[in-house]
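Extended Data, panel c. Modelled sequence:
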Amino acid sequence: MSRVCEIRDCGRIGYAEALKLQNDLAEQRKQGLIPDQLLFVEHPHVVTMGRNGHMENLLASQEVLERAGISFHRTNRGGDITYHGPGQIVGYPIFDLREWKRDVVAYVRTLEQAIIDAVSGFGIRAGREPGHTGVWVDGRKVAAIGVHISRWVTSHGFALNHRTSLSYFQYIVPCGLTLPVTSLQALGVEAGRARVLEALARGLAENFELEFPSPVELAEYTEKTK
């Protein structure tokens, strides 16, 4: 049985604003007031530190970050440190896992698979790296994942490097791993934001057995994001 999921592209919004929106929607989802939600956003330059993060993986001082136009936030998601910025597609699923699987590991692995399926449509053969969360292409991370789950309702999610300026990763040790990052653009993908969003939505719908309100509404939604 498919579950209804409302989907929206919030465009570029600040990290704190997006976090408040997630928290509000997650609380409504816990109370059964709304169905599952899928938010797509793009953030201004920001470095975030997860609850398992280590400050030694932040390679720049606050002054250096400020000069580069990068803000810093601590968060309650899993994982270590990561970067978000223009050209990156960030997905925040607000899913009630009681209606899917009460399994945190299965949730993360399924997020990975949804992204792997999505980028395959652009000729990218992505996969997993043993022992490391995220989506990888030839040993380079193209998508990071960090989630928070409270009473089986998810928040936070994934960040796919679409047309991201990879130079901003110089300020951190991404996810605490001294491994390189890449982007769809660096891999030769010329597809615009709308097409990538549509592919991600399709991958998530298929892997999590979601049903968006209607194909027409999804088409209108993707058209707006070009």
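The helical segments are 15-30, 62-67, 104-120, 193-208, 215-224. This feature is highlighted in the accompanying rendering.
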